[in-house]
Amino acid sequence: MIRVVLIDDHTIVRSGFSQLLSLEQDIQVVGEFSSAQEACLKMPSIKPDVCILDISMPDENGLELLKDLPSAIHCIMLSVNDSAVIIRKALELGAKGYLSKRCNPSELIQAVRTVCSGGVYLMPELTTKLVSSKLSLTRNLTKREYEICELLILGLDTKEIAEKLSLSVKTIYVHRDNAMSKLNVKNNVELAKLFHQQG
């Protein structure tokens, strides 16, 4: 039996999701909370397998609560906001799923089962949005910035890149810093990860 907790300040959303999930033989709703504070107090004793968490709540941002949840709880974020930046942030903080409040019943049920079994669930249109966002990020780079990023990912250092492109080391640093700023990454590891994800 998959034990599920719902955290959403809208009673109608919690009620609808609870009724829907309760129709499934292998899913049991073991808790419903209207605030992050209430969830923090009561969830440890309930020990759910899956938590469905609204990102926007009056007392605390759902992303803040996500950081404090035990890793044993598989969390699905729920939101009307399906911006790629928010989705990516939620996944970075440990969310295993992300659903729009416009999702259909089968997607909700599939998400619960997927994350409980150790997988990650994103609605297909959200996956498309994430990929498009990654692609558009690298499209913002100039040809030179893109070229330098590719060489960094291949393991060349700035001096080697400068020699290869017949540019000064200072120029390479400028292009690299501009590219990292545009891509919102802090180092070569993050840069490589982003390129591989969009690759």
From TrEMBL:
<dbReference type="Pfam" id="PF00072">
    <property type="entry name" value="Response_reg"/>
</dbReference>
<dbReference type="InterPro" id="IPR058245">
    <property type="entry name" value="NreC/VraR/RcsB-like_REC"/>
</dbReference>
<dbReference type="Pfam" id="PF00196">
    <property type="entry name" value="GerE"/>
</dbReference>
<dbReference type="GO" id="GO:0006355">
    <property type="term" value="P:regulation of DNA-templated transcription"/>
</dbReference>
<dbReference type="GO" id="GO:0000160">
    <property type="term" value="P:phosphorelay signal transduction system"/>
</dbReference>
<dbReference type="InterPro" id="IPR000792">
    <property type="entry name" value="Tscrpt_reg_LuxR_C"/>
</dbReference>
<dbReference type="GO" id="GO:0003677">
    <property type="term" value="F:DNA binding"/>
</dbReference>
<dbReference type="GO" id="GO:0005737">
    <property type="term" value="C:cytoplasm"/>
</dbReference>
<dbReference type="InterPro" id="IPR011006">
    <property type="entry name" value="CheY-like_superfamily"/>
</dbReference>
<feature type="domain" description="Response regulatory">
    <location>
        <begin position="3"/>
        <end position="116"/>
    </location>
</feature>
<feature type="domain" description="HTH luxR-type">
    <location>
        <begin position="134"/>
        <end position="199"/>
    </location>
</feature>
<protein>
    <recommendedName>
        <fullName>Transcriptional regulatory protein UhpA</fullName>
    </recommendedName>
</protein>
<keyword id="KW-0238">DNA-binding</keyword>
<keyword id="KW-0805">Transcription regulation</keyword>
<keyword id="KW-0010">Activator</keyword>
<comment type="function">
    <text>Part of the UhpABC signaling cascade that controls the expression of the hexose phosphate transporter UhpT. Activates the transcription of the uhpT gene. Acts by binding specifically to the uhpT promoter region.</text>
</comment>
<dbReference type="InterPro" id="IPR001789">
    <property type="entry name" value="Sig_transdc_resp-reg_receiver"/>
</dbReference>
<dbReference type="InterPro" id="IPR039420">
    <property type="entry name" value="WalR-like"/>
</dbReference>
<keyword id="KW-0963">Cytoplasm</keyword>
<feature type="modified residue" description="4-aspartylphosphate">
    <location>
        <position position="54"/>
    </location>
</feature>
<keyword id="KW-0804">Transcription</keyword>
<keyword id="KW-0597">Phosphoprotein</keyword>
<dbReference type="InterPro" id="IPR016032">
    <property type="entry name" value="Sig_transdc_resp-reg_C-effctor"/>
</dbReference>
